[in-house]
Amino acid sequence: MSSHNLDVYMPVLILMAFAAIMVLGALLVGKLVRPQNPTELKNAPYECGEAPIGSAWSNFNVRFYVVALVFIIFDVEGALMFPVATVFKKFVEIGEGGAILGTFLIFVSVLVLGIVYCWKKGDLDWVKSYQVDTDYNEEKDK
Amino acid sequence: MNETVVSYLSQAPGYALLVEKLSEFFGFDAEGFVTFLIFALVCFVVVNVMSAIGGLGTYAERKISADLQMRQGPNRVGPFGILQFLADGVKMLGKEDILPAQADRFLFLIAPLMCMVGVFASLAVVPFSSGLTLTNLNIGVFYLIGVSSLVGVGIFLGGYAANSKWSMLGGMRGASQIISYEVPVTLSILAIVLMTGSLSFNVITDAQGGLPHQWYIFHNPFTFIAFFVLFIGALAETNRAPFDLPEAESELVSGYHTEFSGMRFAFFALAEYVEVFVVCGVVAALFLGGYKVPFDLGNGELIAKTFPAIHPMLAKQIGNVLQLKAFILKTLALYYVVIWIRWTLPRLRVDSLMVLCWKYLTPIALFNLVGCAVWLWAFEGKSMWAMIFKSGVAAAGGHH
After folding, report:
1. pLDDT tens, position by position, B261-287
2. Is the Cβ pair B377, A98 closer than 8 Å?
3. Domain A6-136 falls in which CATH fold?
4. Is A54 left (phi over 0), alpha (psi -120 to 50) or beta?
């Protein structure tokens, strides 16, 4: 079987199909045996006995957004490093490792610069500390 | 080299005959059909065995936690309570399926499905043994990282779909935690890809040996650190304590699966336990020699040479069974450590979780990656044991 043969991806689809069959099948079979008597209180979201106020689909902390942005940058760079990592050994074997290593180091140092920048900006802190304006402090002291 | 379990099984004597008979019966070339049948059969076995292992994982968790806390643990259903997971499954099946009135009905169904699909799809490349790997993709590592991210999507959707505040908080935490820890995990795996020059799990495993000094964890100081970075990251990726913030029961009730009941909850739990097994297997394959048996017993050549009476094909099968045992043994040892950690360490706070990932693990993983690259270039990929041995020989030679 050659590596261009797409047969090697067949188990992926089969396993995904099995997972879907398992979940949907169990839910369907369960329908025959389980009780079904919903009430208004039972279907309300659980908030430890308090009456829920409003929907949970509201604004959330912007920190999550920054984490996602930083992740995207690092993940894309990680994905870009995979091809380099795969061929690096072959180049070392034919004695051309130095050039590839140099390129690799430049690439990684860009990545390191990125993380240093985020660190300095305070984007890696979960609770971002703001520098309190000095004018405000002086006014308060008066 | 075997690329899939079918190309391994097709070496069996009856395979050609089966294809021929079926081709005659259907009137067309049945090779593709037979391939599909074998894949479906093997996948069916793997899915069932893995579900059983996931179920036994819940039992092991309860039993080990009981042991650590000097309790009895489950001991009523079956001998030593080992059938507890089946009883739990039956109970879950009979539980009412509660659909919150405000929930998104479609996403509420999709979320557990997404988790299961992601976990089961990642089983395709887990290297159980050199012959029984379902499919030895040439992009195996990359595929695994991609497919296992589906679990994170499932967890976030689960938190979002229920439209409950606890769920939403758990889902948001889960998403941010899983994507953050993806970075050190990817970088640690990259170090091993660098050392091997391949993305296929079987090639990576075959580049190691059966004895501990031939494993990648002890290859050089950088891979030694990379192993621990990967293991810590893997704990966070699978939401295991001390990183179980998405379902932190003391602050978020039950986190992203607060509103899920019955079978839907059961699938979240099953997906988590199977994922822990998969992750432990991957760590074992990348760093602990995977299915490699000491002294190359795994490929069956030594067995065939020692006992000439045994058919070489049979010797190969025996070797494969040995490989499977070695893999399962290493994976279960890691599984035990995962459970042990859960019942030993307290949960992290959400800000220290992010600090651990971005300010410690990611820079360390980057440093490891560069260290591995420099090691490979400077010492041409020799392990530190080979170099100690060589310098020892040189020193001994110097005295003459």
Report:
1. 888 888 988 888 999 999 999 999 999
2. yes
3. Methane Monooxygenase Hydroxylase; Chain G, domain 1 (1.20.58)
4. left
